[in-house]
Amino acid sequence: MSQIHFIGADEAVRAVRSGDHVHLSSIASVPHILIEALCRRADELTDIHFHHFHTEGPAPYGSAQYRHSFFDQGFFVGPNLRASVQAGVADYLPVNLYETQAMYRNGALRCDVAMVQVSEPVDGMVSLGTSVDCSVAALEVARERIAVVNSAVPFSYGNLIPVERFTALVQDNRPLVTALYSQPSDTDFAIGANCANLIPDGACLQMGIGSMPNAICAGLKGHKHLGLHTEMFSDGALQLIKSGVIDGSAKAIDRGQVVASFLLGSEEVYKFIDHNPAVQMRDIAYTNDPRIIAQNPGMVSINSAIEIDLTGQVCADSIGERIYSGTGGQLDFVRGAKLSRGGKAIIAMASRTSHGNAKIVPVLHPGAGVVTPRADIQWVVTEFGAVNLYGKSLQERAKLLISIAHPDDRESLERAAFNRFGR
């Protein structure tokens, strides 16, 4: 490490100018030391715009305290910024994750400063570790490229960058953020089993993180030769990799390799990808391109929803008018899976919320965002079954969706369907 010239975080962020648009590496690998240094400059900076995927940990750049200096415009809203977005002191930039990199590269969105966290160098190259996302694109176009070299960042393959690419290097060895998800519920396990029944041996998977994806992974323990091409994975998928269920042997591209763009999970997940050539952490331009996704036969995408209406419109980013998360990569993978030979696009969700509200509804709540349009929908899975809406009319879709709604909601849904469709 002696050959690298490190400077302090306060010195590094002097390169940030009022009016700059700043990209942050995201999820578990946020460069918090640089954010803290910028906050110390808040009184002398104005109109700084931040862009990033969802971030873990403190997010002062989106707080009212710094509203005259910073304005957050994330590509996805995590728990640490939801209240700020609702209060209007932070904002959401609607975008399919695949397009985030294109916005930087084609100039639709400025990126003046890229702040990322990287691994310790190997032969003059550093890795973006657990969070590649659209940081590769940001580093290509930014005026200033500031890297935090962190020994806790795993050296992952597929995203190596020469050390000399950076205009400033800072050192910070604080641990990456980890996430431990709750034990799946009985409902989660039922949904997981219904999804697993749709997945043949040799399929290539995309799924998210959380208790339900972990339940789906639990339902796949008896499968063989699965592949993984996804924007993210966590501990549930890791167990399938370690047990040999996911071996990538049936993939048409990246055979034998796991492909992802960012991670959030336990320390075990991060250690697994460290110096592991069987895992390729790639630019979101690669992982989320529907044309690339479709090249693997039997591609199965599994995503969730906040609510679905009787025509098959999927809301996954808002609760009514209130932004809850973001578009994410759902539509990227829905379309990629449907283009894949033998592929399936699955929307998996509980029939009701934890508060007992129906998630299959006559119409979406006012202001709700449509993430997957009715023309793109295919399979919908709840704890009460799985239905395929592809090739079905509106009246047929309504009947199918009602059949997997919560039993106590079906009568009111049938009345709504009759009033809307006349039968």
Task: Describe the overall structure.
The protein has 423 residues and is α/β, with parallel strands linked by helices. It has two domains: 9-171, 3-Layer(aba) Sandwich (Glutaconate Coenzyme A-transferase), CATH 3.40.1080; 186-421, Glutaconate Coenzyme A-transferase, CATH 3.40.1080. Helix content is 26%, strand content 19%. The strands form seven sheets. It has a seven-stranded parallel sheet. A six-stranded mixed sheet has the order 11-10-16-21-23-24, with helices on both faces. The N and C termini lie far apart (72 Å). The mean pLDDT is 96.
In short:
The protein has 14 helices and 24 strands. It has helices at 9-12, 32-40, 82-87, 97-105, 135-141, 186-196, 211-218, 235-243, 267-273, 284-287, 290-293, 330-339, 394-403, 410-421; strands spanning 21-24, 48-51, 70-74, 90-92, 113-118, 125-126, 144-149, 161-162, 168-171, 204-206, 227-228, 232-233, 258-260, 262-263, 279-281, 299-303, 307-309, 314-315, 318-319, 322-323, 344-348, 360-361, 379-382, 385-388.
